[in-house]
Amino acid sequence: MSIRLLPPEVINRIAAGEVVERPASALKELVENSLDAGAGQVSIRLLAGGLEQIEVADDGSGMLPDAMRLAMERHATSKLPEDAIDRVTSFGFRGEALPSIASVSRFILESRVRGSDGWRIELDHGDRLGEGPAALPPGTRIRIQGLFDKVPARRKFLRSPRSEYAACLDVVKRLAMARSDVGFTLDHDGRRILTLQPTDAPTRVAELLTHELDRHGVGIDCVRDGVRLTGVVSLPTFNRGMADQQYLFVNSRPVKDRLLVGALRAAYRDLIARDRHPIAALFLEVPLEEVDVNVHPAKTEVRFRDPAAVRGLIIGGLRQALDEESRRSAAREQAAAPVMWTSSASYALEPHLGSGIAAVREEQQAFEPVTFVPHARAERAVEPVPSYPLGVARGQVAATYIVAEAEDGLVIVDQHAAHERLVLERMRAAREGGSISRQSLLIPEVVELDEPDCDRLDTAAGELSDMGLEIERFGPTAMLVRAVPAALGKTDAKALLSDLASEIAELGGPLSLKEKLDHVAATIACHGSVRAGRILSVAEMNALLREMEATPRSGQCNHGRPTWVKLGHSEIEKLFGRK
Ligand SMILES: Nc1ncnc2c1ncn2[C@@H]1O[C@H](COP(=O)(O)OP(=O)(O)OP(=O)(O)O)[C@@H](O)[C@H]1O
Ligand SMILES: [Mg+2]
User: Fold this and answer.
1) CB of residue 97 inside a 6 A radius of ligand 1
2) 443 CB contacts (<8 Å, ≥6 apart)?
3) Per-residue pLDDT tens for 274-287?
4) Tens of pLDDT along 389-438?
5) Angle at 424 (CA atoms; ends 418, 425), nearest 5 degrees
6) Ligand in nearest proximity to the CA of 297
7) Residue 465 neighbours by CB distance under 10 Å
8) What angle is formed at CA 145 by the lines to CA 142 and CA 148, rounded to 5 degrees?
9) 3-state secondary structure 322-383
C-alpha cells in the first residue's frame, strides 16, 4: 500500500472523532468559542437533546466574512498570539472545533462585527453549500443540525434525547459556573430551562448546585505556593449516591481531572461512606506555567507540573475547613437552648417532627434484627443532671442505643457508630503523639490469606507496626500476628487482616503515607469498636458519653452518619400535646 497524505475532509472527520463525541461536546465547543469572543450573554437552544439541533448565539466580537471562512479551516485560530501554547488563557487554542463539527453535521454560521453587516456561511458535512448576507445583532450565531446523521458508526453510540439533554445541561452548568460574569439562557424543545444573570461566583454556584449548600456547605479559600483554591463543598453528612455534583475548575476551565477528583475523595475519606459522594464546586487558580492544558483533545484534563502540591493543597484545605466547621457546629449544639430534633449532623433529620421520628426508626432497622427479647435497662433518676452536653446515661435500648438525659432533652446515641469514631480519633491522636501502645499476643495468631493479600500486608508491615499492628510473613499464604494496637482490645485478627489487605489494594494509587495510614486506622477502628448488641454497664455508657464530648468530630461516625440525636424538652412536650 502506498503512503499518502489524507485529504482535509478525512482529517476533519478523524478530529471530530476526538473532539465531538455527542451533542454535549459540540455544545461545549460552541459555548467556549462564545466566551472566548468576549460574550456578555450566551443564548442556547436545543432540540431533542441537541440531536436535532443545537443553536448558540452570543453578543461577542463577531467575525468578518473572511475570518468566518478561515474559521472553518482546520488549524485556524485567533487565540494563540505569539504561538504561546504554554501560556493558554482562552478555552480554545487548537483551531479545530468548528471544522470538526461541520464535517459531521449541517452547519450554519452567522456572524456580525459591530458597525458592519452580518454574513452567513452554510456547510453540509464539510461541503460549502453557499454564503450570503444575514440579518442578526452584533455577535455570532451557530446552528448545528442532524449531528452524526450521516455517520452511522457514531450515531449508534448516541443515547436517548433525554440523556443527551442531561449531558448538555451538565456542560452548560459547568461553563456557567466557570464564568459567572456572563449571562446565560438555555431552552430545550421550546421550554426555558435556565436564565442566569451575570453575578459573582458564589451566587452562581448556589443557583446551579443547590441553595441547601448555604446551610450544609463549607466555604473554601486557601492559598499555598501561589496556588489558590476557592469554592464550596458539602458537609460530610450532606452527600449523594453519585459523584455527579462535583464541579472542578482549573484557571476557570471546567475539568474532569482524575487527580483532582481523587484529592476530593481523599479529603472526605473517613468522613463519608465509600459509596457516597460530596457535592463540590472548587476553583483552582494556578500560575500558567505550572499547568499544561494541551494534554487532551477535548481539553477536559490538565497536567500539573507539581501534582503532589496540588493534591496536598486540596486535601489539606478541605480537611481544615471541614474540621473547623465540625468544631463550630459542636459548639453551637452545646450552646443551643431551643432544640428541636437536633443531631450533631443536623441535616440528617429534618427539623420537622414526623420525619425525625421516621429517621430514627430507619436507623434502628438498619441494624441486624434483634433476635433476643428486647431488654431495656434503666437507671433511677435520683441525682440532679450535671450540665454535660450529651447528658447522663439512663439506660440502653436494644443493646444498641444509649439513652441519656441532658439538661435540655433526651439524647440517643448509637453506641457502635460513636465508639468507632472514638477509636479512630484515639489512634490518630496517639499516632500524632508518637505513642501507640500495643498489646503483644501471648501466642502469635496465624491467619491464612491468599498470596496477593499476604504480599500486600507484607509490604505494609512496617507502616502497620507503627500503628501497633505487628505482623510477619508466615509462608506464602499466611501471616503471623504478634501484637495488636491496645486501643483495639480483643479482635478477630483474620477479619481485620483481610479487610486491611483489600484496603491496601484499593489505596494502591498515589496516596501519601499519611492518608493511607488514616484509612488503615479507620479500618482497624471499625474492628475495635463496641458492636451493636453488646450490653454496656452504666459506667461504660457514661464514659463513652464523656469521651464523645471531648473528642473532635465525634458527632459523625467514620461513614458520615450521625452518632447521636437529641429530642429537646419542648419537642417531648409537643409529642404529648402539652404545647
Ligand atoms: N462565537 C464566536 N465569536 C467570534 N469568533 C469565533 C466564534 N467561534 C469561533 N470563532 C473564531 O473561529 C476560530 C476557530 O474556532 P475553533 O473553535 O474551530 O478553534 P479555536 O477555538 O481557536 O480552538 P479549539 O479547536 O481549541 O476550540 C476561533 O479561533 C475564533 O477566532
Ligand atoms: Mg474553539
Assistant:
1) yes
2) none
3) 778 899 999 999 99
4) 888 888 888 778 889 888 888 899 888 888 878 777 777 777 777 677 77
5) 90
6) 1
7) 16
8) 120
9) HHHHHHHHHHHHHHCCCCCEEECCCCCCCCCHHHHHHHHHHHHHHCCCCCCCCCCEECCCCC
173 lines ligand 1 (CB under 6 A): no
Q: What SS3 class is residue 538? A: helix
293 vs 578: CA distance, rounded Å: 65
- Long-range contacts formed by 116-120: CB under 8 A, 24+ apart: 116/64, 119/64, 119/65, 119/68
Give the Å distance between the CA of 141 and the centre of ligand 2: 14
Give me 330's grid cell: 459542636
Residues with Cβ < 8 Å from 422, sequence gap 6 or more?
529, 544, 547, 548, 551, 554
Q: Which residue minimizes the CA distance to atom 9 of ligand 1?
A: 33
Print the SS3 string covering 316-329: HHHHHHHHHHHHHH
**Tens-place pLDDT, residues 442-492:** 788 888 888 888 888 888 888 788 778 889 998 888 899 988 877 666 677
Instruction: Take atom 1 of ligand 1 and give the residue whose Cα is closest.
Output: 34
Q: Torsion angle, CA of 485/486/489/493, rounded to 10 degrees?
A: 20
Sequence-distant (6+) residues with CB within 8 A of 537 are none
Q: Which candidate, 165, 212, 158, places its Cα nearest to that of 193?
A: 165
CA distances from 49 to 23, 151, 171, 483 (A): 7, 18, 12, 60
Give percent of the chain above pLDDT 90: 32
Dist. CA 144 → ligand 1 center (Å) = 15
Joined together, the cell numbers standing for residue 538 give 452504666
Secondary structure string (H, E, C) spanning 27-39 = HHHHHHHHHHCCC
Residues constituting the chain: 579
DSSP at 562: B
Place of cell 479482635: 491
Q: In a 10 Å sphere around its CB, with 0-12 CB exposed, 13-18 middle and 19+ buried, how is residue 528 labelled?
A: buried
Q: Residue for cell digits 449531558?
A: 167
The label of the residue with cell 500560575 reads: 287
Task: Give the C-alpha separation, 321 to 114, whole Å.
Answer: 47
Residue pointed to by grid coordinates 482535509: 8
CA gap 248, 505 in Å, rounded = 27
| Residue 103, ligand 1, Cβ within 6 A | no
> 3-class DSSP state for residue 576?
coil
C-beta neighbour count of 288 within 10 angstroms: 13
141-145, 155-159, 266-270, 464-468 — which one is most confidently predicted on average? 141-145
- At which residue does the C-alpha cell 429537646 appear? 568
Distances from the Cα of 381 to the Cα of 385, 398, 415, angstroms:
8, 20, 21
Which residue has 476557592 as its cell numbers?
A: 230
Cα–chain-centroid distance for residue 461?
32
Q: Is the CB of 297 under 6 A from ligand 1?
A: no
Rounded CA gap, 393 and 391, in Å? 7
d(CA 110, CA 34): 13
Instruction: Give 305 Cα–ligand 1 centroid separation in angstroms.
Output: 28
